[in-house]
Amino acid sequence: MPRRYYLSPELEKAEYDKHENIIDDPGYRRFLGHLADPLLAMMPPACQVLEFGCGPGPALATMLQEAGHDVALYDAFYYPDQSVLKTDRYDVLTATEVIEHLHYPAREISAWLDYLKPHGLLGIMTKTVINAERFAKWHYKNDQTHICFYSPDTFDFIASEYSLTWRRLADDAFVFSR
After folding, report:
1. Stretches in the chain below the pLDDT threshold 70
2. Who's near 30: CB < 8 A, 6+ residues apart?
3. Could you tell me where the beta strands, DSSP code E, fall in the chain?
4. Measured between alpha carbons, how far is 167 from 177 in angstroms, rounded to an integer?
5. Sign (positive/negative) of CA torsion 140, 115, 16, 2?
6. Whole-structure pTM over 0.90, yes or no?
């Protein structure tokens, strides 16, 4: 999306404040399970995890902690402690419903990969573009905070740029690895 349409940080946060992502909501946990369940099956015990863009109710972090992992939180609006953004620290980085909000996706993805240990996993949740016709009618593009959209071809490009492999875990969940 052209930058002139980006919301100010205040308006962007106001939109996020409307979300009702409650940690103990079974429906929200089922939704996050699209990423969490297959990712947990891939993770060794006691991983160091960074949940990037966790929002005000870090439900995924809670789910991963319940499975025995140590989870650090970062969110520019709700958990802005940059001390958790350390190079080569994490076994896993998750970004659920985050990548579509990034103003500088290449810079952010590069940073995410720097935060990971050499064989770390990057778990991403986002809806993907199917084709131009469906995009025109797609509700997901109407969220003013969604400024970048991705497709399997985009993920192929990202994987190629950063020497990664990726696979789809669910319709809206993906994992990248080196």
Report:
1. 134-135, 139
2. none
3. 48-52, 70-74, 90-96, 116-125, 165-170, 173-177
4. 9
5. negative
6. yes
Residue 5 has a pLDDT of 86
Query: Tens digit of pLDDT for each residue in 13-52?
Result: 998 888 778 899 999 999 999 999 999 999 999 999 999 9
Structure tokens at 24: 């103990």
pLDDT at residue 136, as a whole number: 74
Residue 134 has a pLDDT of 67
Tokens linked to 64? 């991963």
Distance of alpha carbon 14 from alpha carbon 4, whole angstroms: 18
Residues in the chain: 178
CATH number, domain of 18, equals: 3.40.50.150
Q: How many domains does the structure of the chain reveal?
A: 1
- Identify the domain containing residue 107 by its residue range: 3-177
Residues linked to residue 125 through DSSP beta bridges, in sequence order: 96, 173
